[in-house]
From TrEMBL:
Matches recorded under CDD domains: vWA_BatA_type
Gene3D superfamilies xref list: von Willebrand factor, type A domain
Name of the featured protein: von Willebrand factor A
UniProt domain VWFA: residue ranges: 90-287
Annotated organism of origin: Pseudomonas saudimassiliensis
PANTHER family: SPORE GERMINATION PROTEIN, VWFA DOMAIN-CONTAINING PROTEIN
A Pfam family annotated for this UniProt entry: VWA
Amino acid sequence: MMFEFHWPLCFLLLPLPWLYRRWLPPAQNRSAALQVGFMERLQALQPLADQPASAGRKWPFVVVWLLLLCAAARPQLLGESLPTAVTGRDMMLALDLSGSMEFRDMQLAGEAVDRLTLVKHLLGEFIDRRRGDRLGLILFGSQAYVQAPLTHDRQAIGDWLEESFIGLAGRETAIGDAIGLAIKRLLDEPAASRVLILITDGANTAGTVSPLRAARLAADHGIRIFTIGVGADTQAQDGVSVSLRGLQFDPSIELDEGSLQEIALLTGGSYFRARSEADLQAIYAQLDQLEPALRDGLPDRQATPLYPWPLALALLLSLSLSANMVRRSRAHA
């Protein structure tokens, strides 16, 4: 068990009554006053006996204010950690690290970046939202290998993704091997829903397995594959030769969109084309809808609210002070 205040910033309001008393002008008493000839001598007398009593009458109001602040700060007791809710979905992420991913035809926050930098940035945000899924990470180039096995630890997946770099698995593109490795990993797990998200900017140029053959095998085992083709359509080439300046060329000429579309179609998934940062953000948002994860914000611990106790004490003390004031007014009447 652990005690905490859910909104501790409420205690910043502690000096509010004193600031109110200090900065606001005193109330003006417009009632008629009795004029007596010896008023100056009465005012000169020091009510020494009343000073301690006056100070003593202030502390109940201070206690009431503190209790109200404690209630507003939402005190609570946190119990043991709750078991992580799961969706029953196993999701492998296959990321292309071939040499073409270093092409700088993407924009991130207004700056030109290579394809891998943009994909890693937005894929990391996608991973953070996949609460309840088991995620795994496959990196592929000339070869494919499992960088992270299926796990609920999204932080670890994000860290391994961030540590990846172009050429880590070779400079070519083994799409078929990546799909085959994902199938092998997903078949070992008894999940009701198996998903592969494949991100690449090229065509299959390496490996021993045909991408379409691997896709048919995935379809036979109920594995959906969502493919994402990365790369801008055209870009102005500022070459060394003056004659080449302003020439438009297609930086995604090596992207095999036909195969990626067929892979998605065979497995019941979808194909997406990412030409920019906005495209990738929209793609990940669509994936969140097609394969919804649990909502963030679910409590990780059982919280027992305690705010009714200070609130009830403040109410009782306020009623006691009010009753005491009524008694005094009747006694002086």
